[in-house]
Structures are given as structure tokens and as C-alpha cells.
Amino acid sequence: MYLGYSVAKKFRIDPFLGMLLAGVLLIPQMGTLLTQEGGITLLGFKLQAITYSSSVLPIFLGVWAMSYLDRVADKFIPNSLKFVLKPLVMIMIAVPLTLIVLGPLGFTVDNYLAMFLEFLQANLGWAAVLVMGAFSPVLVMAGMHYALFPMLMTAFATNGYDMLVVPGMLAANMAQAGAATAVALKTKSSVMKQLASSSAITALMGVTEPAMYGVNLRLKKPFLAVMIGGAAGGLYAGISGLKAYALVSSLVALPSYLSSTTNFINAIVTCALGYGVAFAAAYVIGFEDIVDAEQQPVVTIDKSLVKEMNLASPVKGSIIDLMDVNDSAFSSLALGKGFAVIPSEGKVVSPVSGTISAIFPTKHAIGITTDEGIEILIHVGINTVQLGGKHFTNHVAMNEKITKGQLLIEFDLNAIQKDGYDTTTMVVITNTSQYLDVLSHQDEEKALTVVL
């Protein structure tokens, strides 16, 4: 579940959709259903009897597919319906796609990866540790290192130690620290210098995410240095037969290698090689440095090129901040920036001239598109959709041309409140992302400014 959340954040989609997809794969009864006589089918396809609890790539591939679905849905679903329809459409497509195609594919790749490393270890042990040291950061970045845990647990249970995964990751973690240290010494950015220095220390302690994502992967070339350093340390660990007795890959875990003096020295040399080779490689290869904000040239904007459009409040009453309304769809600004009004009368008039682009069957909300392309949603009340149009009267039709100040909706303010509904009215610009900014004001005549 956490993997689905974290991968979704990396792909910049709703992380809870990633968790939901992971939850579908991890349903406790799923294994029973898949292994029952005859199995189960979905959309005419028989689902494979796979247990996904110890697999990583199926969830990764499923969320990756959702990231593309997110873009398509964002393009074709109207802004006024995205909050409800977008996640529904994404899940309806992603779940069958993952269960039928991507899940089995990821499970197979996970198994082949483990089999490949087991083959290397069995036939050419030192090469397997070299590969692990070099590509461990890539596996961690993709979340595929979890696929190695069953093999790792088997090694600990059978032998009491591991000679592949942990030694390889030890070299890779030290390489992350070495590359970050080189960046800290070479960068001219005070911000990057501070980030690289602190992340190098945390990497030495086994927490590599700040160094990986904040420094090495961000600057690209240092990440190559990490792989070179990891390969060097892994090569020595493989040749020397380094044995790890604990599932920790950091300097603080060095005492766990004290099964013998030789093993302890090999662990120290592995760390030194991983750190030193990555440091040297990053320093020699270099990187494209970033520029601090105070070092960037000042850009002067010609104010004559910036246009503004002011909107009056469509409802008389007290204007409040949109983030203060008791409706997360609006207060989170997911539907766009705007403002809210606590109405003093039950009339909604158009704040602009334009075209009616959306009319809700329940009459509680209406969409307007101006001649300039600004999309405005006026939503009367919270959860008033449940009234089914009761207490509301529409005065315009779909695609009707309207003028500023024209009456759009009338609503019985007292009756709605008597039925237990909050009458706070929200006004949002649903295509906010297309403009430089959308600013709200505590002024009925100039409640909103759209910076074009």
C-alpha cells in the first residue's frame, strides 16, 4: 500500500489512487478466489493465480499506466466534472489492465530478476555482487529491490548471512555518500552545497533518498558516478567473500561484520572503495551546476503586456476565503482558485458577459465561459446537489449568450437553510492553470482578478 502511495507521488498523480490499486492487488481473499477450481475471469480473460504481496513491479507498472490515464482523462473530461469522474475512470481502466496484463508481466519480471542474480551468485559469485553494487540505486529508485527480499530471507535462514544483496547495497550506499560529497565540494550553489553535505551524512547512515533524489539523480552525472563506485565496492565485496549478518547497509552496521577480523576489514574496504571511487568519478566527470535564486538575473516584466480581468461577486453577501469553506473539493483548490460568499439574498447574476457552458440538472450550479476563454463555475451551497433541484430556479439555457449582471439562478435561501444545508456559494476559475494568477479580494465589485 505504501509502495502504491510513494510511486504515485513520484508520477505526480493522486497518491490515494496508487494505494487503492495496490489494495486491489493485496485483497486477502484474492488468493483464494484465484486458486479455486476454475479460477475467476475478468472481462472474458482468466486471471492468473498470483500472490502479489511480495511483488513490487506489478504495482509500479499499474501506477505508471495510471499516470498516462491521468493525462488523457485530464484532457478530455470537462473541468467541472473532473473531481468526480477522473478518479473513477482511471480506476475502472487501471484495475482490469493491471490484473489482466501488467500484474502478471511485473510478477514474471520480478521472478526473472531474482533468478538472474541467483544464477550469477551460483556460477560467478563476485560478478553478482558487482551487479548488485552498480544497479542497486536503480532497483531502489524503481522499488524493485523488494523483489529480492524472499531470496535475502532464504539466505539468512539457511546460512545465517548474506553475500549478495546487503554487501552490494552497502557499496552502493557509500557511493551515494561519496558522489554527494564531491558535489558539496565542487558546487558554487550555497543551497546545493548545504543539501549535498547533509545528504552525504545521512547516506553514510543508510538513508540514501536525500542524496539520491535531491542531489545525484537531480544532477544526473553524479548518479553515473554512484553506479561506478557501487560497482567498485561490490567487486571487492564479491571477490573477498564479504558476509553480512544483519539487514542494514550503513556505517552503523559495521560491527555486525565482526564475525572475523578479515570480514570486518573487508567491510571497511568495501565502504572505502564505494565512497572513494564514487567521489573521484563525480569530481572528475563533473555536473551542470544549479544557480541560486539570488544569483539568477533579474527579469523585468513589461506591465503593459500583462492584462487583468476583474470579476464582481455574482451573489450579494460576505466574501470569505475559498480555503475556509467546509467542502474539500473547493477548499483544497482542486477545482481551481476563486472565492466564496455567504449570501444575503437568493439571486445569482452573471459576473461577466459570455456563454453558458454548463447547467447542472439539480440547478444548484452553473458554468460560464467568457469570450476570453475564462471558465467560471458558480456553485450554490454545500451538498445542495442532494436537494435534486428543490428550492432552485434556472433562468438561462445551455449555450445561451449572457451579459454581465443578467439573472442566472434564484434560490430560496431560508428554505435551503431550514433543510439543513450550508448556503455558502463558491466561485472558481476551473482553468486556473492557464493564467498567470487568480487573486481574490474582499470587495463585491472586484471580488476576483484573473491575470491573463
From TrEMBL:
Keyword Transferase on entry: yes
BP-aspect Gene Ontology terms: phosphoenolpyruvate-dependent sugar phosphotransferase system; trehalose transport
Keyword line: Cell membrane, Membrane, Phosphotransferase system, Sugar transport, Transferase, Transmembrane, Transmembrane helix, Transport
Pfam family, one: PTS_EIIA_1
Domain PTS EIIA type-1 as annotated: residue spans: 327-431
Molecular function GO labels: protein-N(PI)-phosphohistidine-sugar phosphotransferase activity; protein-phosphocysteine-trehalose phosphotransferase system transporter activity
Subcellular location as annotated: Cell membrane
Domain PTS EIIC type-1: 1-303
Segments traversing the membrane: 45-67, 88-107, 127-149, 161-185, 223-244, 264-285
One Gene Ontology cellular component annotation held by this UniProt entry: plasma membrane
Keyword check for Endoplasmic reticulum: no
InterPro entries assigned to the protein according to its UniProt record, in alphabetical order: Dup_hybrid_motif, PTS_EIIA_1_perm, PTS_EIIC, PTS_EIIC_1, PTS_Sugar-Specific_Components
Membrane topology category: Multi-pass membrane protein
Classification via PANTHER family: PHOSPHOTRANSFERASE SYSTEM TRANSPORT PROTEIN (PTHR30175), PTS SYSTEM ARBUTIN-, CELLOBIOSE-, AND SALICIN-SPECIFIC EIIBC COMPONENT-RELATED (PTHR30175:SF1)
NCBIfam families for the chain: PTBA
Protein's UniProt name: PTS system beta-glucoside-specific EIIBCA component
Name of the gene encoding the protein in the UniProt record: bglF_3
